[in-house]
Specification:
Chain lengths: 202, 229
């Protein structure tokens, strides 16, 4: 199977004027892009602003995207450049997450700033999502849990997972889908009920 | 919701769906809000799993971010890309025209220059003759001077009035002025050419010396004082 065919099919739709297809791309990569940008800026709110700018730049530049590289690779470069420019323009130093800040004063200072930027509701919902997903995974049968973990954590392809688990690719696809369905049943409750927040898109 | 459709969506999220099915599902995904909401939750659960398993450093990423809604709001206010693409194509066409315009201009200038050179050469006399007004040389100007006292005779150069091309004062001034700023070799050459276009000095040998085709041998009627000495 050709790589990036999923993203490319959405990209082609966007290039033909289907803005809804771009929503799907943003939804898929928003967390990765924010995480990436957070290597350069100090807080999640600012990282989201920069990520938003990066996505909009990507949208505007999509007519020039020819699919020579994977969409995420292309988006990754845009996000990095946007973050670097933001850091330069705001005269702020990048944060190196490789450093062990646990015992430094800087870490406490930074955590304080992060806490100021996050609303209690947002932090609570994020925590609730994380807890819900974790509990749902722990409740999965071993074969489903292994399949979804190998996919999401290790980033293995279905073929690689099939080889690792000693089963056909079709079985892997089915296991991953069933794992997602089980997690989704619980996650939907958080999004639709719980804090009473409607889904942003959908 | 159709389980097969959801299964395809899961495979598409992992980039594991065949291309033909991907194209169809992408179309539906962009329009079906329920499918898009499920797609979003797949992304959220993936991020949550990675946060949980990979630990600190990612904890600050908001899993319930409304980033997609914000991006969508901005993009919805913009024209669709299809129109943009046309505009981009137009821009690229204009840009494409711009890059060769200097080259075309240079080519036209070079062509005009080449035609000018050819035209000037066509106007010039063949054989490198100088541009001299058509002054017919008197045919019997030279005389053989005969000295009664001496049998020898010698040839008096034909008294042809030489009318070499004389550069105009403007041209001469130009060449001299130009030579001040040109390379020494070129300067010498240009000055040499300018000098060469002037009448030959008396002590310089003439190419026609000894042949004197235009000179007729005549006897000099005048007494040869020099020879008498």
């Amino acid at each position: 199977m050709s790589a990036d065919v999923s993203d490319l099919s959405l990209v082609r739709r966007v290039q033909r004027g289907d803005k809804g297809a771009f929503d799907a791309l943003v939804l898929k990569y928003q967390h990765k892009v924010v995480k990436l940008v957070m290597r350069y800026v100090r807080n999640p709110a600012e990282a989201e602003d920069i990520a938003q700018e990066a996505f909009i730049k990507a949208y505007r530049a999509l007519p020039q995207f020819r699919g020579d590289s994977a969409f995420y690779t292309w988006l990754y470069r845009i996000a990095i450049n946007t973050a670097k420019n933001a850091v330069v323009s705001r005269d702020r130093s990048p944060i190196d997450f490789d450093l062990d800040l646990q015992n430094s004063d800087e870490s406490y200072e930074m955590q304080g700033r992060l806490a100021d930027k996050e609303t209690p509701e947002a932090l609570t919902l994020t925590d609730e999502i994380r807890t819900t997903v974790n509990e749902a995974i722990e409740a999965l049968p071993e074969d489903l849990r292994m399949a979804i973990v190998l996919r999401e954590i290790e980033g293995l392809s279905y073929e690689e997972i099939a080889e690792s688990m000693g089963c056909p690719v079709g079985t892997v696809r089915s296991r991953i889908f069933r794992a997602r369905e089980a997690i989704d049943r619980r996650l939907r409750e958080v999004f639709e009920g719980g804090l009473g927040r409607a889904e942003e898109l959908g | 919701m159709n389980e097969e459709l959801d299964s395809q969506l899961s495979a598409m999220f992992d980039d594991e769906l065949p291309e033909d099915q991907c194209l169809l599902l992408a179309r539906r995904l962009s329009r079906d809000d329920a499918l898009k909401a499920r797609w979003r939750r797949y992304a959220v659960m993936g991020a949550a799993i990675r946060v949980e398993r990979q630990g600190a450093g990612m904890l600050a990423v908001r899993l319930d971010t409304n980033l997609a809604a914000r991006v969508s709001a901005v993009i919805s206010a913009e024209p669709a890309l299809a129109a943009d693409a046309v505009a981009q194509g137009g821009v690229s066409k204009v840009a494409g025209m711009r890059w060769w315009q200097p080259i075309a201009g240079g080519a036209i200038a070079a062509g005009v220059a080449a035609l000018s050179v050819l035209w000037i050469r066509a106007q010039a006399p063949i054989g490198g003759e100088t541009l001299v007004a058509d002054n017919a040389a008197p045919s019997a100007i030279s005389q053989t001077v005969a000295d009664n006292s001496a049998p020898e005779s010698y040839v008096v150069p034909a008294a042809v009035e030489r009318t070499p091309m004389m550069p105009s004062a403007e041209l001469a001034n130009y060449v001299v002025a130009h030579s001040e700023f040109s390379a020494p070799v070129n300067r010498r050459n240009m000055l040499s050419a300018l000098v060469a276009s002037e009448p030959l000095a008396e002590d310089e040998p003439s190419e026609s010396e000894g042949v004197a085709p235009a000179a007729n041998v005549v006897e000099d009627p005048r007494p040869n004082v020099e020879k008498a000495k």
